[in-house]
Amino acid sequence: MQTLLEKTWIHASTKWQIDHIDIPVFLSTMINFRDSIFPLNVSDALCCDMDVAEELLISFSDEAEHSASHRPTDRSSHEYLSKYTENLSLRAETGKLDPVTGREKEVRQLIDILLRRRQNNPILTGEPGVGKSSIVEGLALQIASGRVPDVLKNVRIHALDMAALLAGASVRGEFENRLKSLLTELNSLDGTAILFIDEAHSLIGAGGLPGQTDAANLLKPALARGELRIIAATTWGEYKKYFEKDGALARRFQIVKVAEPNQDVTAEMLRSLLPMMEKHHNVSIREEAITATVHLSDRYLHGRRQPDKSVSLLDTACSRVAVSQSTSPDAIQDVEASLVRYQGELALLTQERSDVLRQEMLANKIAQLEEELEQLKSAWRHQSELVAKIQSSDDISSKNMYRKELESAYKKDSPMVFECVDKNCVADVVSGWTGVPLGVCLDGEQQKASGLLRCLEQRVLGQRYAMSAIASQVLICRADLKDPVKPDGVFLLAGPSGTGKTETARPLAEFVYGDENKLITINMTEFQEAHTVSTLKGAPPGYVGFGQGGTLTERVSHNPYSVILLDEIEKAHPDVLEFFFQIFDSGIIEDAEGKMVSFRDCLIIMTSNFASENITNIWNDGETNRDRIKEMLLPLFNEHFGAAFMGRTNLIPFTPLHSKTLRDIVLIKIDKICQRFEQASGQMYKIEYNDSLIDWITHHCQCDKSGARDIDSVLNSTVLPVLARYLTDSEDNRTPKKIRISVRKNNITLRSSQFATRN
User: Fold this and answer.
1) Among residues 537, 541, 528, which one has the least CA distance to residue 556?
2) What are the pLDDT digits (tens) for 687-742?
3) Which pLDDT tens digit goes with each residue over 431-453?
4) Would you put residue 146 in left (φ > 0), alpha (ψ -120 to 50) or beta?
5) Cys-Cys crosslink for 148: which of 79, 152, 172, 381, Cβ 3.0 to 4.6 Å?
6) Rounded to whole angstroms, how far apart are CA atoms 597 and 139?
7) Model's pTM, two decimal places?
8) Class for domain 659-754, per CATH?
9) CATH topology for 86-259?
10) What share of the chain is helix, strand, coil (3-state, %, to 5)?
């Protein structure tokens, strides 16, 4: 049966010129004695006049009859041209192509090459997203409008559909037959047709099954004779990989370099697309949105090229405005989903009459969510009414008044309904993509940056000088005054162990980038050998691990807006330190696979215990001026790390902790332990303690060598075992109690008492 089907398919595609098997062609194959697969006696029984039978069966096949009346020899039909190409000129004449601006130079180059007598085949090369295909569409638009030399006025541009050409061409000879017929039809048009091949590198090897010739080799003779004009498009990488290796093919094309447009040209391109975008989304786009789109896409969307990323960003902003005007905001939908979840759990617990405390907590949570939902809906209705007034008003002064009121509502309740596409809407889209606070929340974020010092001092105690230096740099970044090609900051935190160097990175990730998980930690003790540089940026080609990415570059490429913590940098090999020079200088580096990774939106924190004894001695000698301490340390650090490394970093000394600071840290850690204990008990126990406990723990800490880390050691050996024993040994763990921690005879003791709960 398989052999019969194979012979039937070959018969249908080569002789009948159809792309499927029907009953007539199946019968034709069965009675064909030359292709018969039956025994001799069966073949004799089926013997008949083959020509008459073939004509009769063809008449039974509608598509075969249609195909027979439109053979490739009938050049007026152009069956293959319509089947395997798309007429760009026809789309241009019917207004189905987007306008193309800013590429006049490249279009003129295409025209110059196409007018040659020989080697008149341009190939557009450039990075993905720079608009190579759009340039060909721009040429089609110029031809449609008659703004070309007379020789090109009647020319039609056909875009090759390589997928359609290859589809179903698994049978030997089918692909060559299709391509040859297509080239024949193009030649029959006497130079009035130009073939456009996008992703031209796919030609190399196309159809190249064992024993077959690929598409590129079939095109070479026609290109050499000048019978066929082709416009190709491919990326630089694919051109080098495929075309440069085939010199006979490359010499038949003339390269047209397509560079990424600058910001002014990109803005001009976006303006030409405004009418079509506004019509598609039924929204209005303000001029400030164009400027913001180009600026923010250049600043924050790395790894993509203009104008592709700007068009994508503006299109997304338009869709967000359209969605906001027709559906409820995400915030309301999230609260409603949480309400349904909590109400379902409460109903189940009520039915089971179990866990009364959990029921009480759920009831309180539901009441809070209902109140929050009502506030959100009120704000949504208010913003919707303002947008409706702006859209319906014809008076300019009234529109401006309503817009100011809408901006005030945005700052108060966050944006829910957008009146048009403006800079804030575009910035909010970028913020959603990248996690960097922009747009409407930018003003509040700048206020948060101005209060960052206070927030850092609450988390890292006793290091006001260090926190002030870091907060000042963050404020510079938030004001957009930093060098755009460098990271947000490069700091080397040096000091004794347990003074808060590593802890500094966590609140920075939370306050600057909105999430404590935006922290990339690299332990530099693992990079004491020179060859470990490849671990950071990826293994080179030919080595184990190539293609898997580096531990640093891969994580930064996925989280470009984060704090990078290089812990114990003094233990890294000098070659590893030199790896960071380019990152500190230009904020960008190439990984092992040739991909550029940007560090320009990262805050780099390095910690070091180097010269900690010197810092302690200077501090004990009474020197409290941090700038003076820094001056005294710089010669030591220049000798160890090198002046080239230190010249690229900001050295910040961390000094030993005062006893008062130590006591404050103990208080913070005790509060965290109490929260964990209450959570572990299901909120059944509430812990109380007095100052004597804090003083006792502080007294037992030996902070000269390990700093605040010794606090954890004391807590783990004294307080936590007592709490854990009480939690696991308590028989009556369903009665709410107060637990008081105190110190008696130099030991930690607990005393419990019941307290009433609401019914």
Assistant:
1) 537
2) 888 888 888 888 887 655 677 788 888 888 888 888 888 887 765 555 667 888 88
3) 888 777 665 445 555 555 667 88
4) left
5) 152
6) 35
7) 0.73
8) mainly alpha
9) Rossmann fold (3.40.50)
10) 60, 10, 30
